[in-house]
Amino acid sequence: MPGLAAAAAEPLSLTFHPSREQGTNRLAGCLARAARKGDVIALVGDLGAGKTAFARAFVRALCDPVEEVPSPTFTLVQIYEAPDFPIWHFDLYRIDDADEAIELGVEEAFATAVSLIEWPERLGRLLPADRLEVRIAAPPDAGEEAREIVLLAGPAWGGRLAGVDRCFRAADGG
Question: Does domain 35-171 have CATH number 1.10.10.10?
Answer without folding.
Answer: no
